[in-house]
Amino acid sequence: MAWHASVLTLFPEMFPGPLGFSLAGKALREGRWRLEATDIRAFATDRHRSVDDAPFGGGAGMVMRPDVVDAAVGAALAGGDPARPLIYLTPRGVLLDQAMVRDLAAGPGCILLCGRYEGVDQRVIEARGMREVSIGDYVLSGGEPAALVLLDACVRLLPGVMGLAASAEEESHAAGLLEYPHYTRPAEWQGRRVPEVLLSGHHAEVARWRRAEAERITRERRPDLWARYEAARRQRPDASPADAARGGPGAGITRLPRAAGAA
Ligand code: 9D3
């Protein structure tokens, strides 16, 4: 069976959205994965089709009703492999990372619940054993863009979506560093020259320059990744950092041992 994503949302028209284009869109049309967006409002029971209500304890905003959300989740579970993980996208969730993406992509698919308003009644989250996931420390207006991000990250890892060349190259970059900068023709553009070493044809020097640039950029921009990279290098001083960090592609980076204290 193809990898199966079910999205529960008040805005089903947002899907497939950007996932209908490029690699993900082609793979969707080829049947390499399947996407359904279900309108949570279809599970409302009262004549006003209400999906939310005021928060107990007072305060601003509205909360999505547990009975309506539970009915939508039940329908999604019945419409596919019931072993698919259930994920509630919420700013208070655990941070999405490439390890989670890799695990999800390796499974049967997922059921994604997108919140609107202040969020979903906590009891249905607990009753259904949902995993709460955030895509980063910034505030979105709803869970839908987060669902699109999570799905994009998973779908590109499915067999046959990216092609062998791209995935092999990604594996070989297994160093735990941000990428070095890229250049193409012309060799001079608006008075800016491409770094001379890249025109030299000296493959070993090109490789050394790229490694040095990747390290510099990582040190400057991502002290967190840099610390892990250096720790991995200290652990196996005679191995190449790529060997020390082996395990698969990261988030434009590559995979490293978990930082101390990480989940
Ligand atoms: C005023 C308190 N807000 C929490 C920071 C309430 C709130 C803001 C935004 C509740 C929900 C949202 C909508 N965001 C998401 O649904 C969401 C999200 C996000 O905002 N950032 C990062 N990841 C995610 S996943 C879902």
Overall average pLDDT: 91
Task: Identify low-pLDDT runs.
Answer: 243-252, 254-263
Radius of gyration: 22 Å
Number of strands: 9
CATH-defined architecture of the largest domain: 3-Layer(aba) Sandwich
Number of domains: 2
Which cofactors or ions or other ligands sit in this model?
ligand 9D3
CATH superfamily of the largest domain: SPOUT methyltransferase, trefoil knot domain
Number of helices: 9
The strands making up the biggest β-sheet line up spatially as: 2-1-6-5-7
Give the helix level as a range of percent: 25-40%
Largest sheet: 5 strands, parallel
Instruction: Please provide the ordered H/E string of secondary-structure elements.
Output: EHEEEHEHEHEHHEEHHH
> What gross morphology would you assign?
elongated
What fold name goes in the CATH topology slot of the largest domain? Answer: Alpha/beta knot
Summarize this, please?
This protein has helices at 22-29, 66-78, 98-106, 122-127, 144-155, 164-172, 203-221, 223-235, 241-244, and strands at residues 3-9, 33-39, 52-53, 63-64, 86-95, 109-114, 131-134, 188-189, 192-193. Helix 1 (22-29) links the parallel strand 1 (3-9) and strand 2 (33-39).
